[in-house]
Structure formats: structure tokens, C-alpha cells
């Protein structure tokens, strides 16, 4: 059976100062955020994921959004260089964590920028959002790292959202899901299904047709149930205030190279 491990990183004490780009800043209740984060981690663990905790970093307000720091494909971990300079110090400890799991580590180099939240992998296709945190050089370096592994890299120009995965993710059968108002680029996907809520577009594939998703998308959860999936719902409201979603709070390592 495939090994399933998830990298997570506890919220910084300065979480409330995290970046906001497409939403208005509202106060974040850090105590509640920590409880929500613990429930998120418990949901992964309860569904068979081994949790690997990256040491927290208080001086990096956004470090809980660990997905943005690294992209893994097969045995290669590509350490990102965020389009947000204040987030670049987050990668050092993540690089150490993936190296310890046996990954071959590659790094993005200036002038490339790329956030993991811009990278959606489904089958052998790697979609990458551009125009926000990720630039053309970031796409070029992503191609150089992943095309030799057999990936087909497809750029997706973005304007309305922070990251590609703020707008779309993919179901276990490869169908891409997103809210119609935020997916002017949906023709790029061979199979696309609209969902009624923005947050409904964010799913983490837990295995066995279970989908981890946010409590803020109840109508989409019902829709997915009707399609035969089992939604596992977590409240991540404090992170949504900072443009976070269920995908960005972990890095899923399916088939990590080293079995400890
Ligand atoms: N992959 C993600 O969706 N990451 C969310 C990052 C939110 C954070 N406040 C940021 O602006 O970088």
C-alpha cells in the first residue's frame, strides 16, 4: 500500500499578520486558529496519514501555509521561491524535512518565483498558475525539474485569485472543480465541473473517495456526496481570512521515497 505522509507546520505566533491580497483584512483569532489547525491535522491522521511536523517559525506569519514552500513529484522535491519575498525564509526547514524523507531536492533560483499553491497535479499533468505569485521563469524551472519525469506542464494565466488552487482542484477521477466566477480559464481542462461555492473548489484527496474540505462550502459537500464521494469537513475559518484553504495547510507525500 502507498505510504501517505503529510507535512504540516503549526501556526506562527504572528499568524494574524499574514498576507492578504484579494480579500479585506479582518482580525484573526489565533487561539481559534490553533484549534482549527489541530482538528485539520487530526482529520488527516484519522484517515491514515502519518503526520510530519516541520518546526514552527514564529517570524514567518504565513508559515502554516506549508503547501506553498515545496512541490513534490515522484522522488523529486522542488523547493519554491515565493512570489511574496516575506515568505522566502519559510523554505529552509521544509527542505530539511523533505530531504530526511529521501527526496532528491531541487531548488528554484532567482529570478524564478513560484508558490506551491499554484501547482495542481492530476495524472501526469501539472497545471501551474501564472501572473500572481508565479512568474514565467518559475514555470520554466518547474518544467526543467518535472518534464524529465514524464510530466506535462500546462500554464494557467490567473487574474482573480491568489493561487491556481484558490480557484480549482481535482477530484480523484481527474475532474477539475471550480466556481464559475473564478475560472475563466476552465477550457484548459479536459473535464471541468462547476461547484456552487468558492471554497467548494478546494479538496484534499484523503484516499478511498474521501475528500477533505472546508465547512464553508456545505452545498458543494452535498454535491460531492451525490457524486459518490465522502466529504470530511473541517472548519478552517481563521485561515480563510488569510486566503488559506484546505490544500495549503499541508504537503501530501504520496509514496515518499524513504520508508523510515
Ligand atoms: N496555497 C495557498 O492557498 N496558500 C495560502 C497562502 C495565504 C497567505 N496569506 C499568503 O498570502 O501567502
Automatic annotation (TrEMBL):
Entry superkingdom: Bacteria
UniProt xrefs under Gene3D superfamilies: L-arginine/glycine Amidinotransferase, Chain A (3.75.10.10)
Enzyme class, spelled out: hydrolase
Keyword hit for RNA-binding: no
Keyword terms of this UniProt record: Hydrolase
Gene Ontology molecular-function annotations: dimethylargininase activity
Enzyme Commission number(s) from the entry: 3.5.3.18
Homology family: Belongs to the DDAH family.
PANTHER family: DIMETHYLARGININASE (PTHR12737:SF9), DIMETHYLARGININE DIMETHYLAMINOHYDROLASE (PTHR12737)
Name of the featured protein: Dimethylargininase
Provenance organism: Streptomyces ovatisporus
Amino acid at each position: 500500500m502507498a505510504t501517505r505522509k503529510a507535512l504540516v507546520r503549526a501556526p506562527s505566533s504572528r499568524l494574524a499578520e499574514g498576507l492578504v491580497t484579494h480579500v479585506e483584512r479582518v482580525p484573526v483569532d489565533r487561539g481559534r486558529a490553533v484549534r482549527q489547525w489541530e482538528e485539520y491535522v487530526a482529520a488527516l491522521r484519522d484517515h491514515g496519514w502519518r503526520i510530519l511536523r516541520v518546526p514552527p517559525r514564529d517570524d514567518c506569519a504565513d508559515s502554516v501555509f506549508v503547501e506553498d514552500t515545496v512541490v513534490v513529484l515522484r522522488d523529486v522535491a522542488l523547493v519554491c521561491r515565493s512570489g511574496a519575498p516575506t515568505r522566502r525564509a519559510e523554505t529552509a526547514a521544509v527542505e530539511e524535512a523533505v530531504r530526511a524523507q529521501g527526496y532528491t531536492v531541487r531548488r528554484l533560483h532567482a529570478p524564478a518565483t513560484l508558490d506551491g499553491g499554484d501547482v495542481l497535479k492530476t495524472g501526469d499533468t501539472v497545471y501551474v498558475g501564472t501572473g500572481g505569485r508565479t512568474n514565467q521563469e518559475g514555470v520554466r524551472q518547474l518544467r526543467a525539474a518535472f518534464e524529465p519525469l514524464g510530466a506535462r506542464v500546462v500554464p494557467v494565466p490567473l487574474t482573480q485569485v491568489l493561487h491556481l488552487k484558490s480557484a480549482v482542484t481535482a477530484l480523484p477521477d481527474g475532474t477539475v472543480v471550480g466556481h464559475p466566477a473564478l475560472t475563466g480559464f476552465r477550457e484548459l481542462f479536459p473535464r471541468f465541473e462547476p461547484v456552487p461555492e468558492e471554497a467548494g473548489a478546494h479538496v484534499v484527496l484523503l484516499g478511498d473517495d474521501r475528500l477533505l474540505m472546508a465547512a464553508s462550502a456545505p452545498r458543494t459537500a452535498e454535491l460531492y456526496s451525490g457524486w459518490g464521494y465522502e466529504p470530511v469537513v473541517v472548519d478552517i475559518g481563521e485561515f480563510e481570512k488569510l486566503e488559506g484553504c484546505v490544500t495549503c495547510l499541508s504537503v501530501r507525500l504520496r509514496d515518499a521515497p524513504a520508508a523510515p
